[in-house]
Amino acid sequence: MRYDTILFDADMTLWDFKASEKCALEDVTRSLGVELTEAMAEHYHQVNDALWHQFDLKQVTREELKYRRYADYLAYLGVEGDPLEVNLRYERALGEYSIMLPGAEEMCRTLARHCTLYIITNGLHTAQTGRFDKSPIKPYIREMFISQDMGCQKPEREYFDKVFQAIGPVDRSRTVIVGDSLTSDIRGGLNAGLDTIWYNPEHAPADPAIPATYTVDSMDEIIRIILSD
Questions:
Q1: What angle do CA 2, 170, 103 make, to 5 degrees?
Q2: Per-residue pLDDT at 32
């Protein structure tokens, strides 16, 4: 077996965030008296994705992200409201939907027989804890580390130092990060001196400045790499 300790990203690595997000956004939009359309969803996603990318690069704070995405969305809908209050509605709604990616539950079940599994996430506390508590993978995960609770975030070295302080002594050469984001997961691994598995089922272009130890497009490949001699 190549690795003993596995640090999994959450969204789009284990959870189908896009499906959960769609359900939560439908709930929130309906609560504002509007039925969600594809155009509304696409506008929200463009703004939200850009803000999360800026957050990964430390160009906006988490509170700015929360406010700005819903200030923009309310303006786009032409609806009055408090952006932070609407954001809280969204986080609570998102926590109600624990939709896993196909194969994620089986992958965690298989690996948990041999390895210790953790989740590392920059996601928001309310949403992540709500989904985790409802998740079928909860029995296989030793602990979840949410950056909002830790005062630092992926890809910062400080975040991973705090994770290892909580985990206790492990062989870092036998620890691997698995995630779909180059800027937070793979760069985080580089900053922490850890091997990485870039989960890239959409075959996004690689970035030579952020090299992953492995690049895979299936969960079967993740299992094979981790358990191989």
A1: 50
A2: 96
